Amino acid sequence: METVKPQEQIQAEFEQAAQARARGNEGQARVCARRAAGIAARAYLTRRGKIIRTPSAYDVLNLLAEDSTLSAELRQIARHLTLRVDEEFKLPPNMDLMAEARKLCEELLNQ
Q: How confident is the model over 89-109, as pLDDT tens digits?
């Protein structure tokens, strides 16, 4: 059985996110963006010798947010990706989690 590379998994998640956003389903787009970022975070942390026992992208992003070896910007993006929505299922204005997740993925995969 062939193993799917993290980059391929991430790309598939971003494709699903774009499709969800095009349908007006921003919540699903955020979920896909978070999963993509979680895949990149898991690969990054594993390369650094951390053993990740949780399947949860949310948990892995929380680990990343506490990683003092990362830039403050990347830790902040990880925190944004774990924010809870408000009662109207909204995040703070001007926050594009898909764009932030893409940046995080690119940076982590290149480190």
A: 666 667 788 999 999 999 999
Q: Domain ranges in the chain? A: 6-109
Cβ count within 10 A of residue 38: 29
> In the block, which residue shows the tokens 């932030």?
100
Q: Domain 6-109: which CATH class?
A: mainly alpha
Q: What are 22-62's pLDDT values in tens digits?
A: 999 988 999 999 999 999 999 999 999 999 999 999 999 99
Q: Which residue has the tokens 């787009």?
A: 29
- Please tell me the pTM assigned to this model: 0.90
Question: Between the CA of residue 93 and those of 24, 80, 85, 90, what are the distances in Å?
Answer: 17, 12, 11, 8
